[in-house]
């Protein structure tokens, strides 16, 4: 009888702990729902990762490729980076654009269609990661004199700039407002939040590997 009572007490304690754990998880999820959907969390987070938003001038504009679709056309992140590369070129000052990544050729087509001379665009198409962007673009960029400006998505700037610095390239930055655009819509905030979370994990991974 005594042992049976002890077992019932243990069962109740376990059940109570399980209920409390579920309630705590639900409360945390509810808080996260409110923060992401109804506060400027995404914009604040992306702005912190982007750093100064002063659109510096320079001689060489480095544009990192992003997503690419199955048929080889540029995805959303690549598209917006290309759009802002065109705007930077039209504002004057840049003499050369270096496109780096698997979507570089598709982005080149977009830039040429927007009036940028093909001969002013250099391609680096081997890289499959931010670290490779820096490693494979470095020999090209070292042959180009003048100030270099790195353009990529707002949430990607922090890791990208430090990856380039790690290989000896000092670059100014020009963020493309990716998350800042998506966060204007409640439906876009969760997708942006997931991208920010993934990027933060990648930043930690790059620190641990000594790549930034």
Write the SSE topology:
Blueprint (H helix, E strand, L loop, with lengths): L1 H37 L2 H10 L9 E5 L11 H15 L5 E5 L3 H10 L7 E4 L5 H13 L5 E6 L3 H10 L5 E5 L2 H4 L3 H24 L3
Parallel strand pairs: 1-2, 1-4, 2-3, 4-5
Describe the structure.
With 212 residues, the chain is of the alpha/beta class. The chain has two domains: 2-39; 47-209, Rossmann fold, CATH 3.40.50. The protein is 58% helix and 12% strand. It is built from eight helices and five strands, in the order ααβαβαβαβαβαα. The protein has helices at 2-38, 41-50, 76-90, 104-113, 130-142, 157-166, 179-182, 186-209, and strands at 60-64, 96-100, 121-124, 148-153, 172-176. Strands 3-2-1-4-5 form a five-stranded parallel sheet, sandwiched between helices. Helix 3 (76-90) links the parallel strand 1 (60-64) and strand 2 (96-100). Helix 3 crosses helix 4. The protein is elongated and about 85 Å long. The protein starts with a helix and ends with a helix. The mean pLDDT is 87.
In helices, the fraction of residues equals 55-70%
Mean pLDDT: 87
Q: Biggest sheet, in brief?
A: 5 strands, parallel
Radius of gyration: 23 Å
Query: Overall 3D geometry?
Result: elongated
Q: Tell me the structural class.
A: alpha/beta
Mind telling me which CATH architecture of the largest domain this is?
3-Layer(aba) Sandwich
Helix and strand succession?
Answer: HHEHEHEHEHEHH
Tally of helical segments: 8
What's the CATH superfamily of the largest domain, by name? HUPs
As laid out across the biggest beta sheet, the strand order is: 3-2-1-4-5
Strand content: 5-15%
